């Protein structure tokens, strides 16, 4: 009883805090600190990004990509995460990046940030679930006796997306519990994989120096350039941690718990991923043969452990990918819901609608699923028209997501620096989680890294991701003139929504 009273008291405090930003408590606030961390940790998912793009990293940077590339990217991403966490503590609304940009800049900055973030969210959901589909299809095809093709993978991809839509539709309590389980599951599977490779690898592990071998590439690029291209493996893995901010209106004591969720999810992913990649890489017997395989990661595990045990481990990893996609759909739909309730999208009334039975943004959830499938379908059609393309669907999807998300991450950080320079944002505006005097230099370095990787992620052979992003930005400019000017009024915080209106909306949902 005492614990329930404390939780209800915290809910009331969080609701009043949200009212200051002009929003009613429409979503169900029940996530604790671990659940908030777990959703970002599950989306980062070292068992998805580092595994599904393992062949990409190995092809371009050789084994040294794991020893040097992973920690290099992690270091700079931690700075980006810290800058974002500080803003999450200052402005604790589900709109996250979009609201930060609107309040630190203006509604036009916010509108562009939201749409660029939405583009990245489409890419990350598609990339994660396509990764799961590749593994599921690859593991099922020899068992069921069919040949794995891009068509069969697309069908499996659709089924994975459908399952994530259903679970998210049914409520945040289900998803939060699955996310909690997912965090422990990821850690458990990494430990099992590391222990198995350490003690049961056929022929033993390679010397540790293998992990730091540089100068080896299996691409047609000079090694320095190839190494930079290979960074996509780590950079894509470290995406999606803004989920802790997108679920902030469903988190108790969000000004502290959400920032820690953002930062610690990156830190824990760095450590667990480094350990996992080290043992997987040291288990390789022939790097050239691994690169030449259809799925280098599956090849390495099968060669190292073999038999039923190796296949079982691969299925455990595939389930981790499924959990990762589930969390990503949750984050995407909350971002879309928050943007739509401010009328930022065509038919916003539909995407901002809350299911009275499940208290979830049901329409936004299913639109997230449809858009993510559509991005992969576009790539599928392009490959039917131009079958000689050299890039893979996965690198295309991940390139789109990295650039879209990181540009959206960088805009509010840049606007924060500008607002500070103009005297419109100062230490008194910061939340309880802040970087103090280090906030400004950390933000500057974070922005430099975002600019750098945004260029690297769209150079050949992944130029199609750059073309796709350019087309999307052109469409965004068209929407600016055809929709934004007439319909978008900005975040509710700037519109003077009354306390009475907010309470009436909450009563309607609670009484339904």
TrEMBL record:
Keyword Acyltransferase: no
Annotated organism of origin: Planifilum fulgidum
The organism's taxonomic lineage, starting at the top: Bacteria, Bacillati, Bacillota, Bacilli, Bacillales
UniProt KW keywords: Membrane, Transmembrane, Transmembrane helix, Transport
GO MF term set: transmembrane transporter activity
Localisation: Membrane
Gene3D superfamilies referenced in this protein's UniProt entry, alphabetically: Amino acid/polyamine transporter I
GO cellular component: membrane
Record flagged with keyword Transport: yes
Transmembrane segments: 37-56, 68-88, 109-134, 154-176, 183-203, 223-241, 262-284, 313-339, 360-382, 394-417, 438-459, 465-484
InterPro entries the record matches: AA/rel_permease1 (IPR002293)
Major subcellular site: membrane
Pfam families according to UniProt: AA_permease_2
Domain of life: Bacteria
Membrane topology: Multi-pass membrane protein
Name assigned to this protein: Amino acid transporter
């Amino acid at each position: 009883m005492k614990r329930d009273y404390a939780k209800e008291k915290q809910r009331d405090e969080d609701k009043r805090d949200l009212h200051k930003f002009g929003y009613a408590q429409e979503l169900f606030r029940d996530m604790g600190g671990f659940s908030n961390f777990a959703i970002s940790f599950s989306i980062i998912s070292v068992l998805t990004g580092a595994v599904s793009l393992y062949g990409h990293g190995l092809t371009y940077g050789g084994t040294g990509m794991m020893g040097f590339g992973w920690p290099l990217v992690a270091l700079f991403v931690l700075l980006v995460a810290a800058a974002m966490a500080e803003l999450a503590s200052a402005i604790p609304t589900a709109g996250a990046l979009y609201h930060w940009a609107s309040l630190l800049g203006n509604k036009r900055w916010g509108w562009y940030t939201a749409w660029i973030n939405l583009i990245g969210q489409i890419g990350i959901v598609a990339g994660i679930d396509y990764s799961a589909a590749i593994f599921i299809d690859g593991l099922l095809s020899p068992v069921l006796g069919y040949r794995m093709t891009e068509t069969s993978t697309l069908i499996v991809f659709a089924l994975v997306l459908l399952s994530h839509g259903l679970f998210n539709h049914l409520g945040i309590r289900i998803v939060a519990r699955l996310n909690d389980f997912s965090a422990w599951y990821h850690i458990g599977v990494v430990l099992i994989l590391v222990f198995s490779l350490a003690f049961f690898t056929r022929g033993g592990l390679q010397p540790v120096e293998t992990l730091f071998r540089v100068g080896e590439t299996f691409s047609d690029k000079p090694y320095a350039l190839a190494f930079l291209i290979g960074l996509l493996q780590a950079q894509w893995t470290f995406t999606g941690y803004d989920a802790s901010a997108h679920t902030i209106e469903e988190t108790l004591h969000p000004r502290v718990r959400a920032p820690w969720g953002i930062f610690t999810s990156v830190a824990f992913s760095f450590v667990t991923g480094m350990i996992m990649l080290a043992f997987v890489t040291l288990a390789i017997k022939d790097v050239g043969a691994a690169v030449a395989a259809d799925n280098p990661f599956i090849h390495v595990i099968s060669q190292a452990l073999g038999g039923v045990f190796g296949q079982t481990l691969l299925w455990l990893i595939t389930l981790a990918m499924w959990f990762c996609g589930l969390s990503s759909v949750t984050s995407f739909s909350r971002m879309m819901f928050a943007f739509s309730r401010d009328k930022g999208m065509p038919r916003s009334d539909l995407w901002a609608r809350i299911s009275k039975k499940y208290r979830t943004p049901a329409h936004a959830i299913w639109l997230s699923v449809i858009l993510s499938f559509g991005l992969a379908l576009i790539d599928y059609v392009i490959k039917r028209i131009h079958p000689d393309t050299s890039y893979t669907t996965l690198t295309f999807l991940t390139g789109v997501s990295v650039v879209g998300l990181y540009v959206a991450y960088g805009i509010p950080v840049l606007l924060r620096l500008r607002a500070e320079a103009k005297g419109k944002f100062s230490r008194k505006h910061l939340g309880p989680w802040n970087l103090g005097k280090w906030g400004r230099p950390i933000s500057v370095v974070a922005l430099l890294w975002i600019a750098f990787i945004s260029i690297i992620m769209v150079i050949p052979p992944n130029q199609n991701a750059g073309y796709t992003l350019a087309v999307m930005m052109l469409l965004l400019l068209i929407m600016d003139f055809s929709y934004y000017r007439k319909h978008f009024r900005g975040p509710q915080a700037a519109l003077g929504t009354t306390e009475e209106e907010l309470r009436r909306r909450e009563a309607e949902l609670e009484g339904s």
